Amino acid sequence: MDYILGIDIGTTATKGILYDENAQVEGQASKSYPLIQDQNGKAVEDPEVIFSAVQDVIFKLSQNGSKNIKAISWSAQMHSLIGLDKNKQLLTNSITWADNRSQKVVQEAKNSNLADQVYSQTGMPPHAMAPIYKLMWLKNEHPQLFEQANYWIGIKEYVVYRLTNKLMTDTTMAAGTGLFNLKTQQWDSDMLEKAEIKKKQLPEVAAPTMIVGNVLPYYAQKLGLQTDTKVILGASDGYSSTIGVNVLNNENFAINVGTSAAIRVIAPYLIKDAYKRVFCYPVDHTHYLVGGPINNGGIVLQWAKNALLGSDATFEDYLTLAAVASVGSKGLLFYPYLGGERAPIWNSEASGSFVGLTRQHQKAELARAVIEGLILNMKMAAEGLLDNVGKPRCLKLTGGFTKSNFICQLIADIFNLPTVKVKQKQSGAFAAMFLARQALGKSETLNDIKDFAGDEKIYFPNEINALKYQKIFTLYKQIEHDLEKNYHALARLKNELSDSIQ
Amino acid sequence: MDYILGIDIGTTATKGILYDENAQVEGQASKSYPLIQDQNGKAVEDPEVIFSAVQDVIFKLSQNGSKNIKAISWSAQMHSLIGLDKNKQLLTNSITWADNRSQKVVQEAKNSNLADQVYSQTGMPPHAMAPIYKLMWLKNEHPQLFEQANYWIGIKEYVVYRLTNKLMTDTTMAAGTGLFNLKTQQWDSDMLEKAEIKKKQLPEVAAPTMIVGNVLPYYAQKLGLQTDTKVILGASDGYSSTIGVNVLNNENFAINVGTSAAIRVIAPYLIKDAYKRVFCYPVDHTHYLVGGPINNGGIVLQWAKNALLGSDATFEDYLTLAAVASVGSKGLLFYPYLGGERAPIWNSEASGSFVGLTRQHQKAELARAVIEGLILNMKMAAEGLLDNVGKPRCLKLTGGFTKSNFICQLIADIFNLPTVKVKQKQSGAFAAMFLARQALGKSETLNDIKDFAGDEKIYFPNEINALKYQKIFTLYKQIEHDLEKNYHALARLKNELSDSIQ
């Protein structure tokens, strides 16, 4: 039997899944690595450490020599930036999406018309995660390094390069750079000029189903692969976790809640949101990935569990406690912006709040309000989609949050939409595998993904609760608006306090 | 030796202290009673239960037959309202300061010019605690009861009446009704008209040092008193806990933090604050008690301990944890309005908030932010005083908060003022005793109270921390202003959610 390896290069770990030719899972492996955050705003990773993790995962899954692995394909974190010298040797770490150091550049871009232009030509909202702003920041802060760099790529491109010797990227990854034109679907010459780089410094762009080539003989032998194992170009995790839940058009919304979260849809036309609430990344000329990336997902639940119950408590404990409180947590509202926020408010200085506290609020209400706040914030992010592509038939849900029936039901109630927990838990790796199936000719069109991506359970909204959450949602947005004015001053205060501590 | 019994009739308990003629404590007793809150906004007490608690306390402290108790004197909760029929029998419970049911009447008074008039003529800020608004509410909601009532008094008047058969009140208690004219220091005929009552329905007013008379023989025998034990009129707890810490003028501010809190000063002239932030209650024609009563004191710490650590934890545990966090709790702000608020924001619909949360904030920061928030709110309340009487030399501190050196130091740092913990823990009962000393001719003037009211410890502000708290305070006020707009909508949401639960 033939096998395909789908690999998801995430921010904290690389996960690989070995699928047989019927898309059945044959094996799983993962390897985690550190996000280096040794100074304020910095969030980088060592590309060598990640490439080594990728090799670990491949080696573990190819161990059984009888496995005939036909292809390796990818789903990867977006927006990373790596500089290579003229010999394609590493000059920098991988500056991840979580790195905020180009914040000042973004602020300037907002004050000039640059941010508008970037959004309008590339679909990239004004945010420090975008490589275009990181390049400008590097040019200002590290001009010598900037000059030395002959090539600018991301982490998936680095891994693919190491395995094949080819510098290539796919449309869905290129789309997340702020340098790729929405309409022409080529590198945008205006943007290259702004970033002061040349087209030849960037990888060649192709479709996610592109076969890059055979894995290099050295790695084939080292990792226990066949000499004709193909490396497929693969896609961004944003795209793959959307098609991986069988969201191929604008009929349904895909929601993924892991450490962070995202809400996405595939639109048949390009979208420019008047308020820049959503990104719009081209896939091809009739498919655009539109959505909102949300910083504050499961990572906030982790925080709340530790802060309210202590690190010894389990998530089970936390959810059991939260379920004790009533719908709406007795009017307690929680804003989850513990790590700034991208969609829906696009404010890296945002911080979190509990608002509406009374003596009636005990630990159970605090715990439930956190979960409700996370979902209300996702609903705010969904409004940018709703306004542009209309109301979906249902939500397709993946990620850690799906482990809890309580949370799935809350999502259905708060969104007031049927919410489907899908079978595929690792939609990114699953979609990567499917892209390889297409590349190898084992599946004809993307629509065939539905044969493998099934639904596990549907949660219908409870009418009475949905009505309550509608009232809460209106007030939730209004109060966020009032809090928003103070995020900058709060961030400055925190800096002043922490400076004086050191 | 002669003895004097100082009795403090509080909201949750009556405490008595037996003093010898040198003001040394000879014995203490207390008896608690329930605040009946069986419906939204209601907070009443049974006058008979309180009178019975007062008798318990007297009986316990007079047990030793050798004690020659010369006088009993009072410090009592303000703003309570009790209706008596023509035979001076109880028609109502005691509607306490915590009862919010006349809120709607207050709102109407704010919309018309009545609230201005009440404040201007009586010094009573617009709040549901004021008997004038309670009378209007009763007239609307319970017209029959209102008609039946021949007398309107408060809880101290009821206790004194039961012990002496005389219906009398003192200036400092009358001042808290909203019916007592600031200038004439007589019942205000305009206000009586507004409340639709007659002067003869109210008790006669005299000075706190007035000897009402001997205790009735029945109670003298029952409670183990002498037949010539005098009942002194006494004063409001607001006044007595101010003079009880030797704050007799506007040189120092008195801060008391128990379940609730208050900041007070004695001004030599009457004060009308442009923003109605402070009450101004006459004592006599050269002394006015000016200050802000604050709902959210120790009761919020109790809540935070239970909500964050659980009801098994002690305050020691809580304070130890809070002390781990750094000055300013890493920029986390807490607004303590868990039970609405009187001074400084005078908004009974206010609710609490944590603002500025990041993942750096763990339980220790939450715990410290609560204490800092309580004190920052007191500082906001103090601004109403500062603007009218100038900066004090120091703060004189009493109440439960003084048990913690950590909290005392925080008060000094946040106020940026020397803060004196006074020796007298029960400043109310102590002042009541002193008023009796004056009545009996054992002390000549109020100034002699300094002979007994000493300082225990002085906390000087830490300059560096004070500077940080000044920055925090500016932002703290600004954000409160933005939150304030939403208190009404939040209160309405809570009502809607709780209605639908029932």
From TrEMBL, chains A, B:
Protein family per UniProt: Belongs to the FGGY kinase family.
Superkingdom of the source species: Bacteria
Organism: Lactobacillus hominis DSM 23910 = CRBIP 24.179
Example of a GO biological process term: carbohydrate metabolic process
Residue ranges of every copy of the Carbohydrate kinase FGGY N-terminal domain listed in the record: 3-244
Keyword annotations from UniProtKB, A to Z: Kinase, Transferase
PROSITE patterns: FGGY_KINASES_1 (PS00933), FGGY_KINASES_2 (PS00445)
Phylogenetic placement of the source organism: Bacteria, Bacillati, Bacillota, Bacilli, Lactobacillales
UniProt cross-references to CDD domains, sorted A to Z: ASKHA_NBD_FGGY_GntK (cd07770)
Residue ranges annotated for the Carbohydrate kinase FGGY C-terminal domain, each copy included: 254-436
UniProt-listed Enzyme Commission number(s): 2.7.1.12
The protein's name: Possible gluconokinase
GO MF terms held by the record: gluconokinase activity
Pfam families per the UniProt record, alphabetical: FGGY_C, FGGY_N
EC primary class: transferase
